[in-house]
Amino acid sequence: MTDASLQPYSEENKRVPVIEPVSFWFVWNKHGRTPKYRHDTYQSAVEEATRLAEQHRGAKFIVLEAVSKHGVPYPSDVPTSGEPVNKPDKVAV
Predict the structure, then answer these.
(1) What is the pTM of this model?
(2) Using CA atoms, how far apart are residues 5 and 15, in angstroms rounded to an integer?
(3) Do residues 83 and 38 touch, judged by C-beta distance below 8 A?
(4) For residues 91 and 51, which has the higher predicted lDDT (pLDDT)?
(5) Following DSSP, what letter does each residue of 38-81 receive, concatenated?
(6) Considering only Cβ atoms within 10 Å of each terminal Cβ, which end of the chain, N or C, has fewer?
(7) Among 25-29, 34-38, 48-52, 79-83, which stretch is predicted with the lowest mean pLDDT?
(8) Residue 62 and residue 25 in contact, taking contact as beta carbons nearer than 8 Å
(9) Is the pLDDT of residue 81 over 80?
(10) Which DSSP category does 36 fall into?
(11) With contact defined as beta carbons under 8 Å apart, do 45 and 39 qualify?
């Protein structure tokens, strides 16, 4: 990860800030379901991929690693409840 990826969001860099580093693993197969189990260690994910590959001969199981979590904070003038800031009393029809 480069230092540039840790810069806060601004109009100049147009990047979403890194909120925090994360590390966990999923086992994925392109013909299977969406992964739901989050492995806390690489070794656990490899063991699961191996187990699944033995059960499903010929299928490929891929170990995916999450490396960071990103997000953009809500603007300070928008309430998180979803209600508009300046709600009109009546709506024109």
Answers:
(1) 0.57
(2) 8
(3) no
(4) 51
(5) -BSSHHHHHHHHHHHHHHSTT---EEEEEEEEE--PPPTTS-TT
(6) C
(7) 79-83
(8) no
(9) no
(10) -
(11) yes
Do residues 48 and 40 touch, judged by C-beta distance below 8 A?
A: no
State the amino acid at position 30 in one-letter form: K
Residue type, 35: P
DSSP-derived secondary structure for 5-29: GGSPP-TTT--PPEEEEEEEEEEE-
User: For residues 68 and 16, which has the higher predicted lDDT (pLDDT)?
Assistant: 68
As a residue count, the chain comes to 93
* φ, ψ at 64 (rounded to 5°): -110, 135
Task: Enter the DSSP assignment of 85.
Answer: T
